[in-house]
Fold this protein.
Amino acid sequence: MHNLTPDYLRLYPGTFFKHDDVEYGHKEAAITIPAPDGTRLSGWFYNRGEGTPLVAMYCGNCMNAGDFNFIAHTDKTRSYLLINYRGYGSSEGSPNETNIVADARHCLQVARSLLNNRPGPLYLVGYSLGSAVAIQVAVEENPARLVLITPFDCYATVIGQEILDEPPSIADWISTAFAPRITCPVTVMRAEYDTVVPPTSTAALVRAFHAPLLEKCYPGEHGTILFEEGCLPDLMEQLSP
């Protein structure tokens, strides 16, 4: 267990961490996608046209998908799908493991249709909790590459099993159960001084993959890794053929 308070470890959404999408700007790319059950999911879709690579990025706990806008807005060569999980940002509903993964796959289909069903290669990027989402989506979608930033083997090793006994909005996220089924190349980007995801947790996940895997380490913390020297250029390189 880490030196974090139970209130922090509780799964977002919650009033303390709730940030509506409007706070993140970029109205030109804002989108609302109805889930099959009618739940409205909101976020951003940067449509760069037919044939462009499609990058779906999944955020971590206590984040908004808009935290990735600085990447998607700046990079004009790829289409980006940034959708908040149920209850996150301006999305309706309450999240759980099943509906988050189902929504992610549904939103990919919508993004493809907005690209006239002629997208370029698919890349999935998952940050922290989003790594577990990306892994499960990759099992069915078989992207060109799966990029995992500060990933873990299962959520219990990050927050402590006792927290999961409280009214949870999300289940265990046991990524090691899905990792052996991944066939595409995998890139793991970890923070050297991560105090949220234990190094042993990331190492256990890495061992579970059978697909070709590249591991990179940056001298930063869990929440700063994207801003560490070399991280963003490396990420862009992984989103290329």
